[in-house]
Amino acid sequence: MNYMVGNTVRLLVVFRDALGIAVDPTTVILAIKQPDTSFENANYPGTITRKAFGEYQYDFVTTQPGTHYYQWKGNATTQIISEGTFDVSELSTIITAGIPELDDCKIATRSKAFIVPQGMTATLEHTFRDRKGNPMNLSSIFPEIVVIADSASLSASPTGYGKLRAKEAMASGPSDTVNPNWELAVTSPDPANGVLQAVLPAALVENSGLYRISWGIFSSKDKLLGVDDSFVLVERSLFPSDNQTLFADFGPPTMKEIRQQIMDSSASENILLDDVEFSDDQILHAMTKPVEDWNITPPPISTAYHTTRSFPYREPWLRAIAGHLHIMAANHYRRNRLPHQAGGVAIDDKNKEREYMGEGQRLLQEYAAWVQNKKVEINTKLIYGIQESSYTIRYGW
């Protein structure tokens, strides 16, 4: 379990005698030794909660990084002692995806967007939801972990398991280089509310790009019970583990670069909206479109097929993303326009389709023309080759 400073750690214990029969102590004491050697003590009756016969719990709020030691003592017919440890990290590497909103209303049915810096092996935390956006209770799949007689044990037998699969959002084919796939173990810190966690491997976050991920819940007989999809954007940084990756500098424009391009970084840039106009998941959706447009535009060139990890033309890509976002917004304004008058005042605040559609089409027409010219250039070079001069060889011109 990954605990960070400020997290609440729920400590649970079930008291049993030497024969494994549950016993209910008359008094219970819990001592927690923190990394600075100070102690926090709890008692029952008192701050410890009795859940059922022989079962007790205590919620401890972490304030220090490091290893914590705890010890339960229960006085029944004989004294029963149970001990354990847990670790707390100072810097949070748990990445969560917020729920997209529109006009202050949450849209739980949209795909979730995780943003992870390149080179950081973060832990993704995701709430598994049904098709209506409601969190699913996964308690039967991931039973609660309790401490029983000096060891960790499950409060019930698991009826299934979870896994996470990840791949680049646009890649296809059997090549592990072009289309790598990852399958990751999934844990649940809060199964009743559908909360899942998975640690991203170093190989995935080494290369900047957009990745599709699927959270799968399986029965104990390996039957798929449910799937919840989301996306991970590994944003370019100066901290990949391999210097060759750093020097190559491939990958999509960052979220900051895109929002700066369209002046949508904060509510202060949108006085009439008092919010950002585009959510992260909308930007990630628009991010794949220019690369897809490149790949399907003739002539087809096998050596110039790209994914979000390899597309090298970042400035045209950035402008085309802006174009697709404008088209997306135009669709919204067209569908939701409702001009009306009342009390001598006319309101038509959604009358923006023409402006957004016009700007989106302009940007995408420019991009389409650039793609056509660039592909003709690449194709011509493949036909005739390149003759380098002695200046190029000697001086790098």
Strand order of the largest sheet: 1-8-7-3-4
Low-confidence stretches: 145-156
CA distance, first residue to last residue: 55 Å
Query: So, CATH architecture of the largest domain?
Result: Sandwich
Number of domains: 3
In DSSP terms (H or I, runs of 4 or more residues), the helix count works out at 7
Classify the secondary structure makeup into a structural class. alpha+beta
Q: What is the typical, i.e. mean, pLDDT?
A: 86
How many DSSP-defined strands?
A: 23
Question: How large is the radius of gyration?
Answer: 28 Å
Note the beta-strand portion.
25-35%
Helix content: 10-25%
CATH topology of the largest domain: Immunoglobulin-like
- Characterize the biggest β-sheet: 5 strands, mixed
CATH class of the largest domain: Mainly Beta
Anisotropy-based shape: globular
N-to-C SSE series? EEEEEEEEEEEEEEEEEEEHEEHHHHEEHH
Tags for this model:
397 residues, alpha+beta, Immunoglobulin-like, 3 domains, five-stranded mixed sheet, 7 helices, 23 strands, globular
3D architecture notes:
This protein is 24% helix and 33% strand. With 397 residues, the protein is α+β, with helices and mostly antiparallel strands. It has three domains: 3-89, Sandwich (Immunoglobulin-like), CATH 2.60.40; 94-143 and 156-239, Immunoglobulin-like (Sandwich); 252-384. The strands form six sheets. Strands 1-8-7-3-4 form a five-stranded mixed sheet, with no helix packed on it. It has a five-stranded mixed sheet with strand order 5-6-2-14-15, with no helix packed on it. The longest helix has 32 residues, at 353-384.
